[in-house]
TrEMBL record:
Enzymatic reactions: P(1),P(4)-bis(5'-adenosyl) tetraphosphate + H2O = 2 ADP + 2 H(+)
Lineage of producing organism: Bacteria, Bacillati, Bacillota, Bacilli, Lactobacillales
Single GO MF descriptor: metal ion binding
Protein name in UniProt: bis(5'-nucleosyl)-tetraphosphatase (symmetrical)
One Pfam family hit: HD
Entries under CDD domains matching the protein: HDc
Amino acid sequence: MRENTDYIEYINNFKLKTNQSFIDNIKRFYQETETISTFHHGQMVAKEAVSLSKKHSEQLYQAGLLHDISAFIPKNKHLSVSEKLHIPVLKEERQVPLLLHQKLSAYIARECFQIKDPLILNAIECHTTLKKDFTNFDLIIFLADKIAWDQSGTPPYLKDLNSALKDSPQKAALVYIDYLLSHNPLIIHPWLSAAQKQLIV
């Protein structure tokens, strides 16, 4: 989208088309915002999430498709857009506004796609960091996003993560978090720290 786009106006004006399926409406959003590559990433995450769980397949698929729906908002606009939408912003998110994309995506899922299911919204909101008292649904979306990552090549942690996954999703999540923290992240999100403590117990 053009740099001078009013991102909030686009969010406010987007309407679901009743003659389109839910997935086609999601795809149209990605097409209109020129982020179709993110739609393909979302499809991969959605399929991976469904494969990781025997429950909630429809909700997992929707969460996977929508988890990065805010990709059209530039990184340098994440903070200002979040503030204008009255999304709570943590100190660490002010330091690294990219981390706000998970909250922005949850907002868009709710407002543009009429998602009311807290399972879906909560998982989208913490798909990058997890958070305290995460659910198994949250954990599945978190892992699916790390397995079907949005970069080229194979994730460097994937072999160890998949090995740990044979024991439990919790151990697999710890593999990723340990990898992340060993590579000097710009900041450590408090939600991630809280999730790590619970995973270790």
